Amino acid sequence: MMPQLFLHNATRYDLWQDASTSYQIQWQTLYEPYLVVSRKHAPKYHEAFLERYHNKMSHALEMAFAGFEFWVMPSSYVLHLPHVKHPESRKISKCAGEVLMDFVLYLRRKYGNIYDVSYEPNRPSNGWKFEKML
């Protein structure tokens, strides 16, 4: 049984374990995938996101707004090394959450209010209501 990882649930590890071909998934609120995409076609990372706070998440979100499809590659995986915990990480995370809400408004203006999120995750502990912005 694979662990339930909040930021990576959309990957559908139950399918990935036995998959022999790629399968399409839908972006979900707070999804933080590792992406393989051509620089030529991908939007740039937004400069408002510093270090590790919502940079992958915001990039995937913009790609979803822009109409990119998300596909899982079978027989592939990524190793992720833990981040060093910053002494002010709670404050930085809260601020980054507020920046993320502004970013959602920016995306709605840029792409239109076209993106529908059908997934409602548990509320993050810092109190911001990201999914209400979509």
Keywords summarizing the entry:
two-stranded antiparallel ribbon, 4% strand, 2 strands, 134 residues, disordered C terminus, mainly alpha, globular, 31% helix
Q: Ends: how far apart?
A: 32 Å
**Could you describe the largest sheet, including whether it forms a barrel?**
2 strands, antiparallel
**Quaternary structure annotation:** single chain
Radius of gyration: 15 Å
Q: Largest beta sheet: what is the strand line-up? A: 1-2
Mean pLDDT: 77
**Secondary structural class:** mainly alpha
Query: Any low-confidence stretches, pLDDT <50, length ≥5?
Result: 117-132
Strand fraction: under 5%
Beta strands, count: 2
* Number of helices, counting only DSSP H or I runs of 4 residues or more: 4
GO cellular component, one term: membrane
GO molecular function: glucuronosyltransferase activity; xylosyltransferase activity
Membrane topology: Single-pass type II membrane protein
Subcellular location: Membrane
What's the short version?
This protein has helices at about 15, 55-65, 90-110, 130-134, and strands at about 25, 70. With about 130 residues, the protein is mainly alpha-helical. The N and C termini lie far apart (about 30 Å).
Overview of the structural elements:
A two-stranded antiparallel ribbon has the order 1-2. Helix 2 (55-65) packs parallel to helix 3. The chain has 134 residues and is mainly α. It has one domain. The N and C termini lie far apart (32 Å). The protein has helices at 13-16, 55-65, 89-111, 130-133, and strands at 23-25, 70-72. Residues 117-132 have low confidence and may be disordered.
